[in-house]
């Protein structure tokens, strides 16, 4: 069953993040555990044999903890992400897709401005932690920031 949710896209060809609608598929028998986000259609880069990386981020922002999933590609032909550079983060190539995680469900809609600001801070910290991204052979599956 294919559903939609509100997510945040950090496009390489723009200086501002965009709120978008992302599609995902969930298993009706285990909707809280088994989800697949169709991130490949939203990210720039080669369509043949794309390898999409994902990292779970946890950040403490203004007294609350937020958890996000970030999806991105790594390829030498991707353009530098101007949106990340505008956030004064590190250097990442291509688009980034950010989806919010819930306490009882795996993924959920981005809800309010506080959560969007926490997402921006998490992306900035991710870019700083992975800089320079081209030297990484493997990426961590989870990262936490204070």
Write up this protein:
The protein is of the alpha+beta class. It is 16% helix and 34% strand. The protein is built from two helices and seven strands; from the N terminus they run βββββαβαβ. It has helices spanning 82-86, 113-130, and strands spanning 2-10, 18-26, 35-37, 52-61, 64-73, 96-100, 142-145. It has a seven-stranded mixed beta sheet with strand order 3-2-1-6-5-4-7, covered by helices on one side. Strand 2 (18-26) and strand 3 (35-37) form a beta hairpin. The longest helix is centred in the last third of the chain and has 18 residues, at 113-130. The radius of gyration is 15 Å and the shape is globular. The N and C termini lie far apart (36 Å). The relative contact order is 0.23. The model has no long low-confidence stretch (mean pLDDT 84).
Q: Given the structure, what is the number of helices? A: 2
The amount of beta strand, in percent, is 25-35%
Sheet of most strands: 7 strands, mixed
Report mean pLDDT, rounded to a whole number.
Answer: 84
Helix content: 10-25%
Judged by helices, strands and strand pairing, the structural class is alpha+beta
Biggest sheet strand order reads 3-2-1-6-5-4-7
- General shape: globular
Distance between the termini: 36 Å
Helix and strand string, N-terminal first?
A: EEEEEHEHE
SSE layout and pairing:
Layout: E1 2-10, E2 18-26, E3 35-37, E4 52-61, E5 64-73, H1 82-86, E6 96-100, H2 113-130, E7 142-145
Parallel strand pairs: 4-7
Antiparallel strand pairs: 1-2, 1-6, 2-3, 4-5, 5-6
Features:
globular; alpha+beta; 7-stranded mixed beta sheet; single chain; 146 residues; 34% strand
């Amino acid at each position: 069953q294919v559903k939609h949710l509100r997510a945040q896209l950090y496009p390489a060809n723009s200086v501002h993040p965009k709120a978008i609608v992302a599609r995902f598929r969930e298993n009706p028998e285990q909707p809280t555990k088994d989800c697949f986000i169709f991130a490949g259609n939203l990210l720039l880069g080669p369509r043949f044999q794309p390898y999409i990386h994902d990292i779970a981020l946890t950040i403490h922002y203004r007294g609350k903890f937020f958890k996000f999933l970030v999806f991105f590609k790594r390829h030498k032909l991707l353009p530098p992400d101007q949106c990340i550079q505008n956030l004064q983060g590190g250097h990442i190539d291509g688009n980034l897709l950010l989806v919010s995680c819930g306490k009882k469900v795996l993924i959920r809609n981005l809800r309010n401005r506080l959560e969007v600001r926490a997402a921006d801070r998490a992306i900035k910290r991710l870019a700083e932690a992975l800089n320079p991204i081209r030297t990484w052979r493997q990426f961590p599956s989870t990262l936490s920031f204070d």
